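Model the whole thing, not chain by chain.
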Amino acid sequence: MDFSAATLLVVDVQRGIDELGPGQRNNPQAEDNIERLINAWRDSAKRIVHVKHNSVSPGSPLRPEHPGNAFKPQALPVTGEDIFEKTVNSAFIGTGLEQHLKENNISSLVIVGLTTDHCVSTTTRMAGNLGFDVALVSDATATFAKTGPDGNVYDAEQVHQINLSSLDGEFCQVVTTENVLAAF
Amino acid sequence: MDFSAATLLVVDVQRGIDELGPGQRNNPQAEDNIERLINAWRDSAKRIVHVKHNSVSPGSPLRPEHPGNAFKPQALPVTGEDIFEKTVNSAFIGTGLEQHLKENNISSLVIVGLTTDHCVSTTTRMAGNLGFDVALVSDATATFAKTGPDGNVYDAEQVHQINLSSLDGEFCQVVTTENVLAAF
């Protein structure tokens, strides 16, 4: 993929994510990498699409009326950048995102955001299955530790890496921030 | 969920899956558990929907003209059971499955099939995000070892369990064959 010709899709980089969990997170540098990528896109006047989660779950920090719904400072949209709001994990369900991308002849996406195994994975899977060429930036996404239905606790880095291994080559190409920035 | 009132969704239980990989698989008993669940559904005259993957990838054992496209003997559909054919991982993309379920007032699904982290995960995620109440049967699905983009090899059971931990409580309830059969 020619990264510099792709649209940057920024998924759920919102303050309330920090209140999710519970527990340990990986990739503390993810938001800074997202900011570097956003800046590269802006510097070359390429298209950025932001996705925002408006939770409908009681008590979620991502509900629209909660301060946690706000974008993190590293991923604040600016005038001219589109924002698609959603209520489920996939950015393609209940939104006009697919139609918007197709109407604008966008065929390739570079995906970043939070969290690796929930909204990012689901959006990446649907993007690939809907026919888009997708690159997922491993160090510009992150997740939390999880307790499995088997009762075992899996640390955040394990959950992150194994989810990437399930996506890579099947739904997307997994790349790094440096891989992408090298194209600019 | 009242399992006995749900529709059983059987994903990609096809012979060619055995030729995928490469490598080690977990849950060798998955197909036998799928057969036990299918029999329980048939014995109580509940609805079963089969999903079949017709690959469009060159050389795939799941291409329609390849013998591997056939259903495995444990999951052969019988007259009166619907079959939805797909070309991507999600059973909801490029098929009439969502409309079929909604037209038939089906709101809850028990999902089984192959493989955990590709077609089963993607179908489970979309089913949950589309508003269905979903149970995923952990020992009636299986997957293969994977090499991650980090270069590490993850064994099949690790890939399976961590993918389930990412799905459980977010997109579905992860259950066992015995949990489900107890409702019949």
